[in-house]
Amino acid sequence: MSKISFLFSFLLPLILTGCVAGNLADNTALPITKVNVAEQKVDGTYIYWYLSRQNAPERLGERVYSTKQGDYQSDYQWQSGKLKTLLQQGERLIDGQQVPFELQLRFDSQGVAVYQRYKEDGHILPLTTNEITELKQHSEYLVHRIERLKRSKQYFEQGYRQQQQQISCQTQQPITIDDPNVLSAFSPSGHWAAIGEQKNGRLRIHKLLSGVVSETCLQAPTLIDTKQ
Q1: CB 45 within 8 A of CB 65
Q2: Does an H or E element contain 71, and which?
Q3: Do 206 and 179 contact (CB within 8 A), yes or no?
Q4: I need a labelling partner for 2 at 20 to 30 A (CA). Which of 22, 174, 188, 225 fits?
Q5: pTM
Q6: Rounded Cα–Cα distance for residues 228 and 210 (Å)
Q7: 202-208 and 191-199 beta bridge pairing
């Protein structure tokens, strides 16, 4: 059985001292670009929190709500453009049942897996070379997929009702929904999730994500301990 799909990275900016202003400007860390997109496929909903620097991947967090794959979250971390760490946890759909699983993979600078651990329903199982390769290829696929979702403006939007206003999870500020009736599928006082585009405090919802059920604002998964 294939074991696939996660990430989101915090890199400390370089602290440079004793340099002239020109050299300081040349060596300052480039800014990180943040993208939060989502897609709804036939089998479920996929949400991505992606960080990149100068078009190179740094961190990716993924939440999956799938009738085919299961419900799980993933955390991917890259270093110098190469996948360094992958952690996943949640429930995988096996023979029609949700089975808890955990996956850990770490790679060296040459892309060789130096640590692996896969636990399924309480049992430690080995990963094959093909499965590890597939996981690496899937991380590359996700980066390209996210770029396509960004270009088509498939942004992940979420919020909740507070008194008589809708509050955006991203800004924690009141937001105006182009068509407020579109939220009727959600609990009047609950949180909602959607694919849409927000601009100047106004949100145009393209698609509701009714399969995403949460009583809080969803955050990017942070399974990887970056202090290690």
Answers
A1: yes
A2: strand 70-79
A3: no
A4: 225
A5: 0.84
A6: 37
A7: antiparallel
pLDDT for the residue numbered 105: 98
Are residues 89 and 22 in contact, defined by beta-carbon separation less than 8 angstroms? Answer: no
Spatial distance between the Cα atoms of 63 and 79, rounded to a whole number of angstroms: 22
Tokens of 122: 């309480």
- The answer for residues whose C-beta is within 8 angstroms of residue 11's C-beta and 6 or more apart is 29, 32, 53, 58
Q: What is the pLDDT of residue 21?
A: 33
Report d(CA 213, CA 228) in Å as an integer: 33
How far, in Å, CA of 79 to CA of 154, rounded? 27
Q: Residue 99 burial by CB count (10 A; 0-12/13-18/19+): exposed, middle or buried?
A: middle
Residues 6+ apart with CB under 8 A from 162: none
Measured CA to CA in angstroms, residue 157 lies from 40, 170, 214 at distances of: 13, 8, 13
CA quadruple 55, 226, 47, 195: dihedral, nearest 10: -70
Question: What does DSSP assign to residue 81?
Answer: T
- Residue for token digits 């049992």? 123
Which regions in the chain score pLDDT beneath 50? 1-28
